[in-house]
């Protein structure tokens, strides 16, 4: 298909004959003649639609401008009518775009004239092409739309116009990114604000599960991250690999974003399906300032990732590590509970890595802490609660039993758990940390503590009548229906 114009119409070396645009690359500017309506060239050679590549399109555009300059003709003096005899195009930039848009379609990257105009901030062209039927939701080869191009290039006027014309705000490219994500990852705050105001999905995710907040966080765009959080974006959303926005920011060394997300209550010890937490991400990339900040803010230094690495092992494994720079941080990690002798699944430990790298001071420090009694987690309960009933009143997963007991003179619930592997111990410690954090909420059953010593693994919590959280909430209700109205099911899941 091509452009349908009156037979033998020629403008600036371009002949429209039937359905094909025609160009003779051999014609020189000196051979250009002008008449009362435009510029006419005597001969032309057909340029098939199949050859209508980006290179050919750019040559055509160059010929247009060369012709205009050589003939002493102002662009404003050249007019082209559409097939109905109306629609004066005028400006040669619009003319070039018009050639591609009118069924000649796309360049070699799949871009239409409307995409080129939107991406380059030419609103008048965008308006003209949309008004003349250009496809607002056409996609290039990588799945991008013109709205995405305008959004990532901070073309707010074009973004606004396209949205007003009904362009699909939630369209995704081949990677699953939306216009909002493209704006967020390029630091286009005003575009992010506008799209959110227009109802764009803040928590839409890519094929890999990343959200607009994650894109802003991993690239260090604090203002964009702040705005999205203030507008209710999910701080704890996880990508397919288990990374949250906080983990992304920590891994990429974006301290300002890490600080902000922690201040807003992001889970610093959140552990996704990949075993990824912010401390591990920062340590593994050698971001000393972020590791230091997270430890200062109470991150769990004793945690392990799925490969059983400690934060210290990951830190020491970084390339180009300078012993003198990391030594104070090594001491800080050890003093906050990093298991000094922990080996990962490959058999590497802080000691073995320090020896290979000839970090004598680090090795000595690790040995010093290994000889000391390791500090207990703050939630540790020593000694089994007294007067536990002999029969459990509830059971859970295999090896899990819940008993009524008395602890410090108070009736409590005691959850006993059988642990036979490191993975089970890791899950136990994670459950304790999560429950402890949730216990700060007045409507969550309070965890008093737990014991993680061999052959006696249990958690102790306030007793919820009959073991039912709903009954507990009803008993604790003190302000009418504010706990309910559909929230009970939410608390049951928590």
TrEMBL record:
Record-linked Pfam families: Ank_2, Ank_5, Pkinase
All residue ranges annotated as the Protein kinase domain in the record: 387-494
Domain of life of the organism encoding this protein: Eukaryota
Keyword ATP-binding: no
Repeat (ANK) residue spans along the chain: 109-141, 142-174, 175-207, 208-240, 241-273, 274-306
Coiled-coil blocks: none
Swiss-Prot/TrEMBL keywords: ANK repeat, Kinase, Transferase
GO MF: ATP binding; protein kinase activity
Signal peptide range: none
Entry keyword Translocase: no
Name of the protein this chain belongs to: Leucine-rich repeat serine/threonine-protein kinase 2
Protein's organism: Phytophthora pseudosyringae
Record gene name: LRRK2_30
